[in-house]
What we know:
By secondary structure, the chain is an alpha+beta fold. 24% of the residues lie in helices and 27% in strands. The strands form 2 sheets. Strands 1, 2, 3, 4, 5, 6, 7, 8, 9 and 18 form a 10-stranded mixed β-sheet that branches. Strands 10, 11, 12, 13, 14, 15, 16 and 17 form an 8-stranded mixed β-sheet that branches. The two termini are 35 Å apart.
Amino acid sequence: MTTDTNFKITEASSSRIDNVDLNKPGFGLEFADHMLEMEYRDEKWQQPEIKPYGSIEVTPALNVLHYAQSVFEGTKAYHVDENTINLFRVEKNYERMVRSCERMCIPKVDREVFLEGIKELIKLDHKWVPQNNRNSLYIRPFACAFDPIISARVAEKYRFYIITSPVGSYYDRPVKLTTTQQYVRAVKGGVGAAKTAGNYASSFYPAQQAKKQGFDQVLWLDAEEHKYVEEVGTMNIFFVIDGVLVTPDLRGTILPGVTRDSVIQLAKHWDMPVEERRISIDEVMQAGKDGRLDEVFGAGTAAVVAPVEEVHHDGQSVTFDIDGRGPVGEKFYDAITDIQYGQAEDPFGWITPVDVS
Length: 357
Ligand code: COI
């Protein structure tokens, strides 16, 4: 497969940046001036194009709209100073996207196009990277089927896009989680580990039911026994039990989060006891009852490190009287964001600085 990484670039004639409040951007509401677009046809990816952000025209028969053969990624760009924007572990997003593509039968995008495409967009739209309040520019690469055909089969045409959006916190307050015995997110042999559209679509109804009961999200349990904690869907989950950091191990049903991996690496670096293992919801609730559950937090690119205020299961709740992150979550949040914004050493080589001078 040959891929031409020689981007064709068409710059926007004017910028929309003055219409956006980068100090209060919300999440995924506004999009920067440029996007990357690349077509797959005749069995190869064509020349990638960077052009003004805008609508795309599609036929109602477009197969991705019907069968969701699509994958996406999420990473962020962080303002360091007027000449430097940092990217964080973006190679890991590329590798995950390749695995998602394989699972969803989508031809893999070339590494150079993915990584250089992000850098080119950041250079063009660096003014869209917020400077304050730990806001950032969210980067959303995605690839999807693009055949104008409603037969249910692997597509022959695809599109790859990268769009970017200034964002603030995904959750602006501690979250309340509930388990459900009725619904599941992912099954063994399914697509739980892939970042693919259907995983999110199928979680909306149970999340809507949870919201009606006053919760923010579902804390998913395994599909076989409805017993072991998996993840939240919008983020991975961590428990601090008697000072030990515990998170479900990856068994093919959980998204291998980049922030999850960063939290685990940091914990090991600090000699903090960390266990990646099966953890039953009964163990969590019992630790809560015994006063041994110090903290619960989620971790994800969008969520960063998000404190959990309540875990509800089978009519019982463990609650935390908090209005922000607990001390352990805060330590991870500070360490990760300090590295991201270039305010701390990067002993792990996680940062790729982009020179935007
Ligand atoms: C991310 O954290 O990047 C995600 O894709 C989660 C999504 C719910 C915004």
